[in-house]
Structures are given as structure tokens and as C-alpha cells.
Amino acid sequence: MNNLHNPPVFDGHNDLLLNLWLHHDEHPADVFLQGPLKGHLDLPRARLGGFAGGLFAVFVPPADYAAQMKPAAAPHDPLGITRRQIAILHQIEASSAGQARVCRSAREIEQCMQQGVLAMVLHIEGAEALDDELALLDEFYDAGVRSIGPFWNLPNQFGVGISGGFPGSPDSGDGLTAAGKALLRACNRKRVMIDLSHMNEKAFWQTAEISDAPLVATHSNAHALCAQPRNLTDRQLAAIRDSDGLVGVNFGTAFLREDGKRDGNTPITEIVKHLDYLIATLGDDRVAFGSDFDGINVPDELGDVAGLPRLLHALAQAGYSPGLIEKLSWRNWLRVLKRTWGE
Ligand SMILES: [Zn+2]
């Protein structure tokens, strides 16, 4: 199966920068550009899979995890980690001889896709590094950051993320703090996308009330099919639909399977089931991919980014039209990014 006739894929979420920061901090750009990297994503495999770009997350891991995985980096320095991971993406661009670019607008993404240049958008997952006065938001924006999830699963100065295991509800108590609400307003002013994927129930509804942008969950699935607390309830999906937002479907088996297990022995059709459900709820224009490559366990049948043609093939087998597959693959992401960022 080749991907000659497949549409390019623009994807809502990956954790490549965490992988590079943890394991390849000496020569991160070279290992990404040349491959093969341990993990789901490097440039040669991206080319094989038709992966045209996506949101690349800067992720500040919890202090104890970082200390264990990267003892040399202690003491814990969220700002230093954030700046370093942003710098890594810029190094990739600088070393790529025009093969990869940090994109700041939908127009730049479209140009990259037309020219076969990997389109990389900077996203911050867990904004611990931002101080309460938001003084650093301008610095990050100037560095290319166009999307922010205020917190990951653990509480920080902006609010409380989702905690609790499977099966569980997204309701984990308190939501946004006053600083979190101020961050959302600042993001609206700068037209930085706000990611709801790690928000607990209360923060989700506060965001729905405060934000004037479409509601976007970059890498979450349907709670009705898999009761992970990180997946979205029907009420949340309806709110995303009503805001004309988007959900990027997560390829992680723990977010797909009815039993919530991390198990590679999970057919690709489990991704199709979530897409079916999300499309039935949100419509054809508000569903896309949010792989979470390098952050989760994917079905063995998919394997890594080079396996994307197998997913697109499964969609065709399930009766999805070429036009719908193109929407899921990239058009819907571009549509919601234009609505959020401006043309
Ligand atoms: Zn995540």
C-alpha cells in the first residue's frame, strides 16, 4: 500500500520534542532529520506516511518524572525546559535545508504543504513556565507558539487538570484559577489557540464561557466509547460542535479501547469507531487527527507515523468518501486554525 493517492496528513498533537529533549538533547535536529528515532516520529518516516505537519507540543513533565528520566537536568526548571524545547524545533528548521519549517499562520502551513515542506506549529502543553503576569507570553508568541493548553494532568498556577484512572469522569474538582482565566483572555487577544484536551470538566465549562474562540480539543476521544477521564462527554462534544470547534482523535489505545487498556493488540478499526461517533456528533467539518505520537501506545497495526496510509485505507474500507478523508486528514484542521488565528 503506498500513499501516492492519499491526502497529506496534518495532525493535532505529538510529543516529539519531549522525546528529543529527554533522549537526544546533544544532536536533536540531526537525529530527527536523519532517523531512525526510537518512538513514532522522525522525518524519513513522516515522509513515508504522508505526514505533512502538525502541532508539536512543548511539554514540561512533572518534576519527579523529569528527575528520574533526565537526572542531569535537575533542578526542575519549567522555563528552561520550555525554552530548550522551543529551541530544538527551531534547530530542526535551521538544519533541515528547507525540508521543515516553523509555521505561524494557516497560510504558511498551506504553503509548506504545497511545497512538501514539513509544517511545524509550536504548542505548549502545560504552561507552568508562564508567570502569573503573562510577561513571557509575548516571548513565546514571538518564538512561534500559536497554541496553549494551560495545564497537563497535574494542578499548576492556572488550574487543575484531569486526574483519576479508568474508568472515570472528567470531573476532578476545581477548574481554572484567576490566573488561568487571565491566561485564556490573553490567548484570545493574541489569537493563540486554547487546547481543552487536558482540562477537567469545570475548567472546560469555564473556558466555554470565557473564550471567544472555537473550542478545540487537540487529542481526545469519545467518553461514551472509552471512559477515560481525558475523553469528552456527549455534552462537551455538543458544546464543541456549537462553537464550530474541533476534536482531534487520539491514537492511544488507552483512549480508544472500551476496557481502557494500553495494548498494542488493538485493531485500527477502534480509531474508526471513535471517528464514526465523533462525526455523528460533531459533523464532517469538526473532526480531525490528534495522534499523540511519542506520547502514547498506538495500535501495533498502525505502528508509527509511517503507518498512516493503513489508517486512511481503513477509512476507505469503512465507506468514508475521498472528500471526507481529506477533511479529516487536513482540511478541518486548516479550517479551525483559520477561524482561530485569522486568515
Ligand atoms: Zn496530552
Looking at CATH, the homologous superfamily is Metal-dependent hydrolases
The CATH first-level class comes to Alpha Beta
Rounded to an integer in angstroms, the radius of gyration calculated over CA atoms is 18 Å
Counting DSSP H or I runs of 4 or more residues, the number of helices is 14
What ligands are attached or bound here?
A: zinc ion
Report the CATH architecture.
Answer: Alpha-Beta Barrel
Query: What structural class is derived from the secondary structure elements?
Result: alpha/beta
Compute the number of strand runs.
Answer: 9
Which range best describes the helical content: under 10%, 10-25%, 25-40%, 40-55%, 55-70% or over 70%? 40-55%
Q: Give the low-pLDDT segments.
A: none
For the biggest sheet, the summary is: 6 strands, parallel
The rounded distance between the terminal residues' Cα atoms is 36 Å
Q: Round the mean pLDDT to the nearest integer and report it.
A: 95
- Beta-strand proportion: 5-15%
Whole-number count of domains: 1
What is the global morphology? globular
Order of helices and strands: EHHHEHHEHEHEHEHEHEHHEHH
**CATH topology title:** TIM Barrel
GO molecular function: metallodipeptidase activity
GO biological process, one term: proteolysis
Organism: Chimaeribacter coloradensis
Protein name: Peptidase
